[in-house]
Design a protein that fits this description.
The protein is an alpha/beta fold and 388 residues long. It is built from 16 helices and 10 strands. The longest helix is centred in the last third of the chain and has 16 residues.
Length: 388
C-alpha cells in the first residue's frame, strides 16, 4: 500500500471528545488537507467507535488552515504507479467509508471553508448539516486529469437538477458557498467571521438532537442567493448541451451556444473541457449517467472498479500523465493517449466498467446489523497480497 511521506510529527487527524460532542480536524494544512491513507483509516476507526457509543451524539468535522480538503493525495497515487495495486487498500477503505458517512446514525456537521474538492467534498456533501462560507470553493475536477468523478459523486451529482451533474463532472466548474446552498450540496451559509462562534455554540449545545443543532446553526446562518452571473442561472443552456448522448456532441453543442450573444461565460469553460483527458471525459460521462439509475452502494462499487482499472492503466496511463502535468512537473501540458475523443475505443471503455469477480468487489453490507462489516482486512485482497 502506498503511504504518504510524513512531513512533520503532527498527526493527520486531530480528535477531541467532549461529553456528547466529537470534533475531528483534518490536519494536513500544508497539503490543503488532502486525504491520505492514514487519514482514511483514522476517520473510519473513530466514526465506527462513535456510532456504537451511546455517549457520542454530535460529530463535527473541519479542516485546519486555509482549506477543508483538496481531495485525494495525487502524489501518493503518482508515487505508487510502478507498484502493483499500491493504492488499492486506501481506495477500498475510502469508498467503503463514503457509504458509512452517507448512512451515519449520529448527527454530523461539516464546517467548510476554503477548498472542498473531489474526495474532500465527500466529507461535506452527505452530512446532515454542511456549513459553507464566502470562502468555500467546491469542484470535482477529476476528469480533467484522466480520472473520474468518485467518492460517491457519480451518484450525488447525477441527482442534481437537469444535467447540472454532467456539467460539473465534465468541466470541473467551481461553485462558491452561495451556489452550494442553492444547488442543495450544502445546507447553510454562515459568514466566515461567525464560523468559530458557531463551532463554540455547537460544542456548548452538547447534544445531537437534529432540531436543536439546526436551530443553533440558524442563529448564525444567513439567507443567500447565487450571483446573477452564476452558472446556476445558466441551467437551460447547460441542459441543452449536457443532455447530449456523447462528449463530442456535448462539446459541439457547447461551442454553438458560445457563439450566441450573452454567452461569454462559456469560452473559458469550453477551453478547459477541450484540454481534458478524452479517456477521463468518456469514463466520467458514462459513470454519471449510470449513477442516475444506481443506488449509492451500486455507484460506489462501480467507482471502485473504475478507480482500480484506471490506476492499473488498464486502457490508458492518462491519470499519471495528468497528475505529472498538474502537480509534479507543473507544466500544464499533458500528452493524452489517445489524444482525441474519436480515438477512444468503445470496447476499452466497456472494459473499465466490467464487474470484478464477486470476491473482489467492494463489500457494502445492506444488512443494517452488519453495516460495519466488509472492511478491507475482511476482503480477499490482503490474502492476494500475501501470496505475491
Amino acid at each position: 500500500m502506498a503511504h504518504e511521506i510524513a512531513t512533520s510529527d503532527e498527526p493527520v487527524l486531530l480528535v477531541e471528545e467532549m461529553e456528547h460532542v466529537r470534533l475531528i480536524t483534518l490536519n494536513r494544512p500544508r497539503q490543503l488537507n488532502v486525504i491520505s491513507s492514514n487519514m482514511v483509516s483514522l476517520l473510519a476507526e473513530n466514526l465506527e467507535k462513535w456510532e456504537k457509543d451511546d455517549k457520542a451524539e454530535l460529530v463535527i468535522i473541519k479542516g485546519s488552515g486555509r482549506a477543508f480538503s483538496a481531495g485525494g493525495d495525487l502524489k501518493m497515487f503518482y508515487d505508487g504507479r510502478k507498484s502493483k495495486d499500491s493504492c488499492l487498500e486506501v481506495v477500498y477503505r475510502m469508498y467503503w467509508l463514503c457509504h458509512h458517512i452517507h448512512s451515519y446514525k449520529k448527527t454530523q456537521v461539516a464546517l467548510v471553508h476554503g477548498l472542498s474538492m473531489g474526495g474532500g467534498a465527500s466529507l461535506m456533501v452527505p452530512m446532515k448539516f454542511s456549513i459553507v462560507t464566502e470562502k468555500t470553493v467546491f469542484s470535482t475536477p477529476e476528469a480533467s486529469i484522466g480520472f473520474h468523478t468518485d467518492c460517491g459523486f457519480s451518484y450525488m451529482l447525477s441527482h442534481l437538477p437537469g444535467h447540472l451533474g454532467e456539467f460539473l463532472a465534465l468541466t470541473g466548474a467551481r461553485l462558491n458557498g452561495k451556489e452550494l446552498v442553492a444547488a442543495g450540496l450544502a445546507t447553510h451559509f454562515v459568514p466566515l467571521e461567525k464560523l468559530s462562534d458557531l463551532e463554540k455554540r455547537l460544542v456548548s449545545l452538547n447534544s445531537g438532537d437534529a432540531n436543536a443543532v439546526k436551530a443553533a446553526i440558524e442563529e448564525f446562518s444567513v439567507t443567500v442567493q447565487p450571483d446573477e452571473e452564476s452558472v446556476l442561472n445558466k441551467q437551460s443552456t447547460i441542459d441543452e448541451c449536457f443532455s447530449k448522448d456523447t462528449v463530442a456532441e456535448i462539446i459541439n453543442s457547447f461551442e454553438a451556444e458560445a457563439k450566441k450573444e450573452g454567452n461569454g461565460w462559456i469560452g473559458p469553460v469550453l477551453k478547459g473541457l477541450k484540454r481534458s483527458s478524452p479517456t477521463g471525459l468518456r469514463i466520467t460521462l458514462r459513470s454519471i449517467r449510470e449513477g442516475r439509475k444506481q443506488t449509492l452502494a451500486e455507484a460506489l462499487k462501480k467507482e471502485f472498479r473504475l478507480t482500480i482499472n484506471i490506476l492499473r492503466s488498464t486502457i490508458s496511463e492518462d491519470v499519471y500523465e495528468g497528475i505529472r502535468a498538474l502537480t509534479i512537473d507543473k507544466d500544464n501540458a499533458p500528452k493524452w493517449n489517445p489524444p482525441t475523443l474519436e480515438e477512444v475505443d468503445d470496447e476499452k471503455i466497456d472494459l473499465v466498467f466490467k464487474p470484478f469477480a464477486e470476491d473482489l468487489e467492494l463489500k457494502i453490507q445492506e444488512n443494517e446489523e452488519l453495516r460495519w462489516d466488509g472492511k478491507y482486512e475482511c476482503s480477499a485482497y490482503p490474502s492476494f497480497k500475501a501470496t505475491e
